[in-house]
Design goal:
PcRGLX/YetA-like; PcRGLX_1st; PcRGLX/YetA_2nd; five-stranded antiparallel beta sheet; alpha+beta; 26% helix
Amino acid sequence: MKLYPLFYDTLTDVQEAIPITWGVPWKKGDLKDSSDVVLENDKDQQLEIQSKNLAFWPDGSVKWSKYSANIPYQSLKDLTLTIQNTPLELKKSTFITEESNGWQVRAGSLTCFIPKNGEDWIQHISIDQVKLIEKGTLILALEEQHQINGGNWTRQKVGYSKINDVSIEENGQLKSMIKLSGVHQVDGKEIVPFILRVYFYHEQRFVRYVHTFYIDEHLTDKLRIKGIGTKFSSVLTGKTYNKHISVATETGWYNEASQLLLSRKYRRHQSYAAQINGKVVKENKENQEVINQATKNAIWDHYQLLQLNENQYQVLKSTGRTSRYIRTIIGDRARGGVFISGENGGVLFSLKDFWQKHPSSINVKNLSKDKNDCLVWFWSNQANAMNLEHYTDQTHVESAYEGFDELRATATGIANTSEGAISLFTEQPTNKELDFYLHMHQNYHLLHCDPEYYEETKACGSFSAPKWEHPVEVKLEKALDNAITFYLNEIEQRNWYGFWDYGDIMHSYDTVRHQWLYDVGGYAWQNTELVPNLWLWFSFMRKPSEQLFTVAEAMTRHTSEVDQYHLGKYQGFGSRHNVNHWGCGCKEARISMASLHKYYYYLTGDERVEETIHEVKDIDQKIDELPPMREFYDKKGELTPIRVGPDWAAFLSNWIYQWEKNQSTNYQRYIQNTIKDVQDAPYQLLSGPVFYYQKDNRKLIHMEDGTLGDYHMVIAFGAPQIWLELDTMLEDETWRKMVADFGAFYHLTDEEMKERTNGKLQKSMFAWPMFATGLTAYAAWYYQDESLAAKAWEILLKDPLFDLKIQEIDSWKTILESENISTNGMSQWCINVMMCLKLIRNHLPNSEVQESDKQ
């Protein structure tokens, strides 16, 4: 198969090799083991490749595999991956070795030591036998808030990491990773747990790290996080005037030195120009007087790159002789990189999504000294302390579309993940070299397959690759593209950025204020309501692009961290949409189910997302703690009322992942047994839609038919995609017929529904027929029913989202808007169109019919 790179054309004239990890799906039966492949460039040369099985088909063949390789940048556009039983053997090399007090890493010319416990997560890093980093420690700043005599009083205190556990999660010959976990210690108190993954790549000069922290019960309205990040101590030797700093601006690098070779007498000397260009200046007869004059200059010891919002950054500096900082430059969006150097080399510190996840900063202290510190703040300590309170102390269920009349708006248990890197140099890099490493750390250089290949494997969900053959299909493809473009523009136009918000989009629009309903209960942030994650990932695999990957990656990071609970009483559940991401009283399994996040994991092999998916595998065992239908039905002993969808569908999603990833027969049995329970109900998938769930036996028990919980709730949260995924895995005719019958039934008349169910079911229970068009297409495919296919296309083509109207409005600013836009509707319309193009493309109406229908 041909492989294609993302983010390739952004850089030019690059000679270095770039480490890439990517995932590949396979047809059932094609691949026995992930190692049975070869990676070749355009010269038919085999490249070394590291492999891992990620998921399996029921017959034991590989469904998804992960590969890592160091690939010359210029070869990225001409790669093929081929099944072959005699792949190139990896060179034998020792990457990570265990010692009594830690782990020694030797990744080519880069060496690093990670201790097994203590305060530091890095003890030292060297490149070409030159030690440039001698310490890495996580840092946590807290702010206590008190009210005394009517006034507000705050006190800040700082703590550092305490490492409790260190383990190797991957020890390959091209890529390895060490996982550390622990807590922060502040005033002797253990607070804010963390997980830190540290990545190493053979023959690469950088270390990448992925940091996750959790909001725990110790944080309160009176004790807040003021700053969180990591502190590096570097060893940069030499003269004060040879201590340089370069800051990545929007497009270039701003350069300064700790002590400028600029004086009243010498303002344009070539030594000064060389210094500002980062060159090491050696004293000689020509510049001795220049240097003598410069030694009387101020020494700038401290620097800050500070991004407090998405539209402005500042670079500040201080002599350290007073507390005063002065501003050097100001700009819009810094790229999140700071390079500092001395005569022995330099270090580039970079933070991914620097401006997108503001407030962030990179601070340098004691630049003039031989030992200095760089503090990479994921949440800058220069910003206000985190305020994770809910926006109100009451619920607004009826007026503002909130969930239950229960105030469960707690942030305790949510998490946030940040990514950074340290690149080491013994010689001054050019700006192009700095650009290369910064770009590599800011963007995921994924290799992806052809859309046709993704579709053919049947491992990626129910969608089709674009064909652009039929006139109506061309219009549909343009409508799908317009939907993505609209939201990409909205993210920018509405500034949907910030540490706790980046990756999410809004739910509903207010045409009166020309603003999204950001402040109205459940109409605000979308979270994972109506599965926008699936919409974006299916869209990416149909039409891979850098922009689409970036927004889908950000959504996955956000929804798997902020919208999901990772510890505490709600662990494994997610929060329904709200003004605060964690604000809704509904904590449900559907919001955190595996399907939402697994495609990112399968495409990238990301271990943190894998971890978040693993957390929800047995969420059905906690369902009696938060019965999803508790407003309408009481528990009956050990029986908990749940819905066929989205509750059981979410369980299926989690079980499918465990079955395919770990070949777990237990989870396979849970799937098959509960399907049999539904099959035995009077109307199978149409029964209920509420069943009793017996968690100990993982059994669904028929309650009655026509229960509360409308059928659009069954299908709006990913159930159709999960059911069709089971179709490819089970290949069970009974299951296929059950799914097809559900899709066909949805569009019957009221009289037909009542007649077929003895009056139990009626049309009023089957709202939002557009949500069911994908299943209707499945029914049309299964029964070869042209009338059902025509019905599905009629609904989709008459929907206003098919012809999205965007207009320019002069309001509080000039705004591009679409009236009555709904992310719920957009997400579902796009997903269902993709399903229909796969299942009933050959039943598309002609364009003339379409135009007359629209009129």
